[in-house]
């Protein structure tokens, strides 16, 4: 048997291309995966697809570089690839990769001028399964469209004869300095867009002085992501509570030890919405988020990446469990997924540090109200929440004007998710370019509105008459409340 220092030829590696003897090459190292294959979280089929071949590219698209050496015994390392034995057949990509290489060519980054440009390019160049997962939303996409369209129905009321030579977009988010009232919303499996995934987002966020929310379903562990940015750069962590609460407690201890500044506990996706575009495309069974440990598989419902990787989420988590979460972590708590005034008031009563007004980007329950309309509902029914805790919002934001409207309605900052993933398609430079675009749009909009500092934002700068009739009163004041069973009231 070859030693660890042995040089292994291509011909020898090709002999081990079955379940009985399964070797793979990753980063020029030859590994014996035979015993590990049945236990692989992503299933055996993906390993067999690359058995006796070079699996470097698909491996690095999904996994952290150190994972294979941490998982396998040193005895499974058979040696290094003999480069002199490489032939044209060895370097030929498999059919799946060949098809991906034929996707549309990306235009030069400088030609992309807005969020919609990044989305268009992403639709033409990102792997079809990844695109279906990131762009999809629940059922008929009504909330997805409403998130965006509602901003278009709110009008500015500009003031003129103002000195707007200097403009300041800086703010504080949960006590942390940010150059913009903009966060990178948590999103799963960024590595399917770029090999370094969330680590690239971390580096770009640090260079631009904004905050990244790290997802529980990130394609890298939080221990890999946080050190990607300079020491001291602030992060927040988005938490899905695990059915196995002990796993959540262990994860939160790691998060705290890394200096993460706050926990954003997600409450609007305890079960995953029906995202049909994601379901229609076959699952990639190699995907397995390291912090949740679930895997993507096909079943009778289809190939939904979100649904299958979200199977670990605790559906029983409720308000009273915030007391447990407070005992587990001393970090500030933000409840992500508030969709009405009644729950915003509940969050305030439970003493959380903030809320995110969010419908999960239209990906959970379709026909829930647009996020910006919920901000209006809070202003109408419980304006005190803006004084008691920090209020954030995401969903449908594509322009600097959208950010400014949300701030005028009381939001401390906004989150953007999908578009950052589309920008990631161009690597760190693409993410930084996108942030520059949003910064420029926000500054321009502020000056034209007649303000120079975010503290000057207020509802009086907006005309919301086109949507005011859509804003309900509190649930207990609903005219039809008396017709419902008492148990529901």
From TrEMBL:
Subcellular location: Mitochondrion intermembrane space
EC category: oxidoreductase
PROSITE patterns in the cross-refs: CYTOCHROME_B5_2 (PS50255), FMN_HYDROXY_ACID_DH_2 (PS51349)
Pfam families, sorted: Cyt-b5, FMN_dh
Entry keyword set: Flavoprotein, FMN, Heme, Iron, Metal-binding, Mitochondrion, Oxidoreductase
Catalytic activity: (S)-lactate + 2 Fe(III)-[cytochrome c] = 2 Fe(II)-[cytochrome c] + pyruvate + 2 H(+)
One GO location term (cellular component): mitochondrial intermembrane space
FMN hydroxy acid dehydrogenase domain location: 107-467
Gene Ontology MF, one: L-lactate dehydrogenase (cytochrome) activity
Domain Cytochrome b5 heme-binding: 5-82
Cofactor requirements of the protein: heme b; FMN
Listed EC numbers: 1.1.2.3
Region of interest: Disordered: 76-102, 282-305
CDD domains: FCB2_FMN
InterPro entries tied to this protein: Aldolase_TIM, Cyt_B5-like_heme/steroid-bd, Cyt_B5-like_heme/steroid_sf, FMN-dep_DH, FMN_HAD, L-MDH/L-LDH_FMN-bd
SUPFAM superfamilies (UniProt xref): Cytochrome b5-like heme/steroid binding domain, FMN-linked oxidoreductases
Subunit annotation: Homotetramer.
Family: In the C-terminal section; belongs to the FMN-dependent alpha-hydroxy acid dehydrogenase family.
Name recorded for this polypeptide: L-lactate dehydrogenase (cytochrome)
Organism of origin: Aulographum hederae CBS 113979
């Amino acid at each position: 048997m070859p030693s660890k220092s042995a040089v292994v030829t291509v011909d020898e590696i090709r002999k081990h291309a079955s379940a009985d003897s399964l070797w793979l090459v990753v980063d020029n190292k030859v590994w014996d995966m035979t015993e590990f294959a049945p236990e692989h979280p992503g299933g055996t089929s993906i390993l067999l697809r690359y058995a006796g071949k070079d699996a470097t590219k698909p491996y690095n698209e999904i996994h952290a570089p150190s994972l294979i050496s941490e998982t396998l015994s040193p005895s499974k390392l058979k040696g290094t690839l003999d480069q002199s034995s490489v032939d044209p057949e060895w370097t030929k990509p498999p059919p799946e990769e060949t098809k991906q290489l034929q996707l549309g060519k990306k235009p030069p980054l400088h030609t992309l001028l807005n969020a919609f440009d990044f989305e268009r390019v992403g639709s033409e160049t990102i792997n079809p399964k990844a695109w279906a997962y990131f762009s999809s939303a629940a059922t008929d996409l009504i909330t997805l469209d409403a998130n965006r369209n509602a901003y278009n129905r709110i009008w500015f009321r500009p003031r003129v004869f103002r000195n707007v030579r200097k403009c300041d977009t800086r703010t504080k988010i949960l006590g942390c300095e940010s150059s913009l009232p903009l966060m990178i919303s948590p999103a799963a499996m960024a590595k399917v867009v770029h090999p370094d995934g969330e680590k690239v987002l971390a580096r770009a966020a640090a260079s631009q002085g904004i905050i990244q929310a790290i997802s529980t379903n990130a394609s890298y562990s939080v221990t890999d992501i946080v050190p990607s940015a300079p020491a001291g750069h602030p992060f927040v962590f988005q938490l899905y509570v695990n059915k196995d609460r002990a796993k959540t407690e262990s994860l939160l201890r790691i998060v705290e030890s890394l200096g993460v500044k706050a926990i954003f506990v997600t409450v609007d996706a305890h079960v995953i919405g029906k995202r049909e575009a994601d379901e229609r495309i076959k699952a990639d069974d190699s995907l397995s988020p390291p912090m949740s440990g679930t895997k993507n598989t096909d079943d009778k419902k289809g190939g939904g990446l979100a649904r299958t990787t979200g199977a670990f989420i605790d559906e029983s988590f409720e308000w009273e469990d915030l007391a447990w979460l407070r005992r587990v972590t001393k970090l500030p708590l933000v409840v992500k997924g508030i969709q009405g005034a009644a729950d915003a008031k509940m969050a305030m009563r439970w003493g959380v540090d903030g809320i995110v007004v969010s419908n999960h980007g239209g990906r959970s329950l379709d026909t829930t109200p647009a996020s910006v309309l919920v901000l209006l509902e809070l202003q109408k029914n419980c304006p005190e929440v803006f004084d008691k805790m920090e209020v954030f919002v995401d969903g449908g934001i594509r322009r600097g004007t959208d950010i400014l409207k949300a701030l005028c309605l009381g939001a401390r900052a906004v989150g953007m998710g999908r578009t950052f993933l589309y920008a990631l398609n161009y690597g760190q430079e693409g993410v930084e370019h996108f942030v520059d675009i949003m910064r420029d749009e926000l500054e321009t909009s502020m000056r034209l509105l007649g303000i120079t500092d975010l503290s000057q934002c207020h509802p009086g700068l907006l005309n919301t008459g086109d949507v005011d009739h859509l804003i309900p009163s509190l649930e207990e004041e609903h005219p039809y409340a008396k017709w419902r069973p008492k148990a529901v009231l």
